[in-house]
Design goal:
The structure holds two protein chains of two kinds. Chain A has helices at about 5-115, 125-140, 165-170, 175-185, 235-275; strands at about 140-150, 155-160, 190, 205-210, 215-225. Chain A is an alpha+beta fold. In chain A, strands 2-1-5-4-3 form a five-stranded antiparallel beta sheet. In chain A, a hairpin with a 6-residue loop joins strand 1 (about 140-150) and strand 2. In chain A, helix 1 packs antiparallel against helix 2, helix 1 runs parallel beside helix 5 and helix 2 (about 125-140) packs antiparallel against helix 5 (about 235-275). Chain A is rod-shaped. Chain B is α/β, with parallel strands linked by helices. Chain B has five helices and five strands; from the N terminus they run βαβαβαβαβα. Chain B has helices spanning about 15-25, 35-45, 65-75, 90-100, 110-120, and strands at about 5-10, 30-35, 50-55, 80-85, 105. Chain B has a five-stranded parallel beta sheet, sandwiched between helices. In chain B, strand 3, helix 3 and strand 4 (about 80-85) form a beta-alpha-beta unit. Classes of the chains: A alpha+beta, B alpha/beta.
């Protein structure tokens, strides 16, 4: 074999090697392309899955939030309802407390008035107590206490406060309707307005002093204290109490006083007879 | 709780009883009564009191004279004094406040008003029983 043949053969062998290398390269490239394609597909799948997961996750979260929101709204509504109920209860309790406090004061006033009226058998003290009740507890500035004459059915003044001397010395003139209400029906008369002119002798209220159904006297109210705008529930209760208890207290104390005086006279007379 | 002693001065037994009945609602309080300023002054000289509630109109020594006596003669400058007035005694009321009375109440007396006043005068603790 010549040198050139050997070289040709050598070149041929090298080209064969190169071809083999290129073939392997081609196969490797094809494998790479395949792998690349597979990875691309996988990436796409993962992206798709991620998107789905994200979508699902957001949707669930929103739903959960909506549910929580709904529950909170219900809770808020319930709390608002309870708050309104408790506020109303609180308001009712406050009103009840004020009412109880008012009743407590009424009872205290009535107790004191009743206790004091029956605490003495001295007619002057009884009258003084009636005056104190009218001034200190009811808040009357001008009034006169009259006793009724059974025969003439006229009113004779017994004591008064804040009125002219004429009023405490004269008789009480009442309008026929008022007279019928107070004297015949034994009911308390209240005028529309709680002021009257003491000079004119017409009271704004006339409280019959009664023992059972019999009217033994009248308390005529002419004027309230300036700081007292009008009569309240307690005042009506006190005046009602006076209508019954003051009458008994005044009459019994006067009877006791008369009996005592007569007893003393009889005792003195007996003593005189003994000494003769 | 510290016991407080109140002196109620009024010639009207009705008013005294009503005030005492109201003051019974103040926890830990003792009430001593006097019929006029003279009796009250004697009690103040011999004992210790935390509050004086006095009517203006009284025989022997009236409420005004009592306030002046408490501040000027007895030198009880810190003793709270409440005067009770009726209409037509506005001048006396002002004079009473000038003489050293701490507060005033007007007739007809209201129990809740008296209790509110006591709470104001003794704010360190709520003494009033509800």
């Amino acid at each position: 074999m010549s040198t050139s043949d050997a070289e040709i053969h050598n070149v041929f062998a090298k080209s064969e090697e190169l071809l083999e290398m290129l073939r392997k390269g081609k196969e490797f490239t094809e494998q790479l392309l395949k792998e690349n394609e597979r990875l691309r597909l996988r990436t796409l799948q993962l992206e798709q899955e991620t998107l789905e997961l994200q979508e699902r996750s957001t949707k669930g979260h929103v739903e959960r939030l909506v549910e929580e929101n709904k529950q909170l709204k219900e809770k808020l509504s319930h709390l608002e309802k309870r708050f309104a109920e408790i506020e109303q209860e609180n308001f009712d309790f406050a009103a009840k407390y004020a009412e109880v406090q008012q009743q407590n004061e009424n009872l205290a006033n009535l107790y004191v008035a009743s206790y004091q009226l029956h605490s003495t058998l001295d007619p002057n003290e009884v009258i003084q107590i009636v005056k104190e009740i009218l001034i200190d507890l009811v808040g009357v500035e001008a009034f006169v206490i009259y006793m009724t004459d059974k025969k003439t059915r006229t009113f004779t003044p017994l004591a008064g406060e804040g009125v002219s001397p004429q009023l405490t010395s004269g008789t009480l003139e009442l309008a026929p309707a008022v007279r019928a209400k107070v004297l015949d029906a034994a009911e308390t008369y209240y005028a529309q307005k709680e002021t009257a002119d003491p000079q004119q002798g017409r009271p704004f209220a006339a409280i019959p002093l009664k023992i059972k159904k019999e009217v033994v006297g009248v308390i005529a109210l002419f004027k309230l204290l300036s700081q007292k705008a009008h009569l309240g529930a307690t005042d009506y209760e006190l005046l009602n109490l006076l209508a019954g208890h003051a009458a008994t207290a005044i009459v019994s104390s006067r009877l006791y006083f008369d009996a005592e005086r007569k007893l003393k006279t009889i005792e003195a007379f007996i003593e005189l007879l003994k000494n003769r | 709780m510290e016991t407080k002693t109140f002196l109620v001065v009024d010639d009207s037994a009705t008013m005294r009883q009503l005030i005492c009945l109201t003051l019974r609602r103040v926890k830990g309080c003792q009430v001593v009564e006097a019929q006029d300023g003279v009796e009250a002054a004697a009690l103040l000289r011999s004992g210790s009191f935390d509050l004086v509630i006095a009517d203006i109109k009284m025989p022997n020594m009236d409420g005004l004279a009592l306030v002046k006596h408490i501040r000027q003669d007895l030198k009880l400058t810190d003793l709270p004094v409440v005067i009770i007035t009726t209409k037509g005694e506005d001048g006396d009321r002002d004079e009473g406040l000038r003489a050293g009375a701490n507060a005033y109440l007007t007739k007809p007396l209201s129990g809740p008003m008296l209790l509110q006043l006591i709470e104001r005068l003794f704010p360190e603790k709520s003494n009033v029983a509800s």
